[in-house]
């Protein structure tokens, strides 16, 4: 999950990674 959030951190920077569900 952490590696998935790493690449999504740019688009998810506005919302907490904990609340941001991983993309399908």
UniProtKB/TrEMBL annotation:
Domain of life: Eukaryota
Region (Disordered): 1-24
Protein name (record): Titin splice variant
Species per Swiss-Prot/TrEMBL record: Mus musculus
Designated gene of the protein: Ttn
């Amino acid at each position: 999950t952490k590696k998935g959030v790493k690449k999504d951190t740019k688009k998810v920077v506005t919302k907490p990674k904990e609340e941001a569900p991983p993309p399908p």
